[in-house]
Design a protein that fits this description.
Elements: E1 8-9, E2 14-16, E3 19-21, E4 26-27, E5 30-31, E6 36-38, E7 41-43, E8 49-51, H1 59-67, E9 77-80, H2 85-88, H3 91-98, E10 102-106, H4 107-117, E11 123-126, E12 130-134, E13 137-143, E14 153-157, E15 162-164, H5 185-200, H6 204-213, E16 223-225, H7 235-250, E17 256-261, H8 267-281, E18 285-290, H9 296-304, E19 308-312, H10 322-334, E20 340-347, H11 353-364, E21 367-368, E22 373-376, H12 381-401
Parallel strand pairs: 8-9, 9-10, 10-11, 15-16, 17-18, 17-19, 19-20, 20-21, 20-22
Antiparallel strand pairs: 1-2, 2-7, 3-6, 4-5, 7-8, 12-13, 13-14, 14-15
Bound molecules: MU-OXO-diiron (FEO).
Length: about 400
């Protein structure tokens, strides 16, 4: 067992015993560009309780952190808040070593865990809102279905006022400063927004519901402990992240335009830059994201606090570029709201990309504004002027509607 890992105390009875993943970048399509943490927590009461585990390759790190403060065999219970494998991937070996009296999960969590492991698992299902004691520790579990899986659950530890919120209020950020107040605010804001935009966006109605109903449970939340990234341990930090989540559920249109495109011989790129220039002269924020250097998850992030999306693609074999199709497929799943948009691109003979882009924009739920612009081969001055005007018109529309 590697004993270079320590448990980190976060309250009177609770220790962080998670793992830090500096190497991960591709998190099933999400670009975790700053790595991540898998947060597991150990409650040292009369009957020690482990809240969640970590991704399978980090099993030894978690066990080493646990071992730094307690013989793992003394842990009496495990509560699994989320079945996804970054938190339950090493549940079986953990059970094998600890041999807990009980493993708790939500009803859907029990179903999901059994469907992952396909073996006999003795799980105790917890009902929504159920309050219970394990030794001298008192808990309440609440189901948070579709935040972001059907099994997702919060666990409130009343003794220390800690809400273990699994993925909710988390972010992908590999940090050795486990408290939010120790980290750079601008980095946390971007990574929290990225997490929300890429993981929670299709489920904003469920986020609203939990934010609205959480006060009804009467929890005195002193610490908000998610399963990724920093822990929120002051009232101002808890309010900060909750207010951001509330704001993001609304997806209000802002005076910001996102332009993404791919290009074959630089013609569509020239058009993109002319559109951006038009937006800029109207003193409106514009983010230009060439797909040669932009990841889908960063595009989704930039869109969360914007008002318009303009997409460019050349026509290739009567289709749009595969790179553009990738982003459109992704956005169709995320379903961003309250955006206007339009299409542009260069072509050599058929010019089908514009109609395809417009249909895709409509399928995403983006309202078409103004007219699309396509040009044969290389944009001339007239075309670039039209692109500039499109940018200006979109910027003016955002100003008028805000
Ligand atoms: Fe961090 Fe949904 O797993």
């Amino acid at each position: 067992m590697n004993n270079t890992f320590d448990a980190i105390k976060i309250s009177d009875k609770v220790y962080w015993v998670g793992a830090i993943d500096n190497e991960i970048r591709d998190f099933h399509g999400y670009n975790a560009s700053r790595g991540t943490t898998y947060n597991a927590y150990l409650i040292l009461g009369e009957k020690p309780v482990l809240i969640d585990t970590v991704k399978a390759p980090f099993f030894s790190e978690m066990m080493a952190r646990i071992t730094s403060i307690i013989d793992p065999k003394k842990i009496s219970y495990i509560i699994s808040n989320h079945a996804e494998m970054d938190h339950s991937g090493c549940l079986l070996p953990t059970i094998e070593i600890i041999k807990p009296e009980k493993v708790f999960a939500s009803k859907m969590g029990a179903l999901a865990l059994k469907a992952h492991f396909h073996q006999q698992l003795d799980l105790t299902e917890i009902n929504h809102g159920e309050k219970f004691s394990l030794g001298d520790a008192t808990f309440t579990c609440i189901e948070t279905r579709m935040l972001h899986w059907p099994d997702s659950m919060f666990t409130y530890f009343a003794n220390d006022g800690i809400l273990f919120s699994q993925d909710v209020f988390g972010m992908h950020l590999a940090t050795y400063k486990i408290l939010a107040q120790q980290n750079e605010r601008v980095v946390m804001r971007y990574e929290a927004m990225k997490y929300f935009a890429n993981i929670l966006l299709p489920y904003t109605s469920f986020v609203t519901k939990i934010l609205d109903t959480l006060p009804n449970f009467g929890f005195d939340i002193k610490i908000l402990a998610p399963d990724h990234g920093p822990i929120w341990n002051t009232a101002s930090d808890i309010n900060w992240i909750m207010d951001l989540w509330h704001k993001w559920t609304q997806q209000k249109s802002t005076e910001k335009v996102v332009i993404f495109y791919d290009t074959m011989w630089n013609s569509t790129a020239k058009m993109a830059n002319a559109i951006a220039d038009g937006v800029m002269v109207e003193n409106t924020l514009v983010k230009v994201m060439p797909l040669s250097v932009s990841h889908r998850s960063d595009i989704a992030t930039e869109l969360l606090e914007s008002g318009a999306l303009v997409i460019g693609s050349p026509t290739i074999n009567q289709q749009i570029f595969p790179t553009v199709a990738d982003i459109l497929c992704y956005l169709k799943g995320l379903k961003p709201k309250n955006l206007i948009g339009q299409a542009f691109g260069s072509y050599g003979w058929g010019g089908e990309s514009i109609n395809i882009l417009q249909e895709e924009l409509k399928n995403i739920g983006i309202k078409l504004f103004d007219i699309p612009i396509k040009t044969l081969y290389v944009p001339n001055d007239n075309c670039l002027a039209a692109c500039r005007t499109l940018g200006q018109n979109i910027a003016k529309e955002l100003k008028n509607s805000s």
